Amino acid sequence: MDAFTAGLLQRIRATETDLTRARNEGDDFLVEVEQGELDDLRRLAAEHGVEVSVSV
Question: How far is residue 3 from each of residues 29, 32, 33, 34, measured CA to CA in Å?
Answer without folding.
Answer: 31, 28, 26, 23
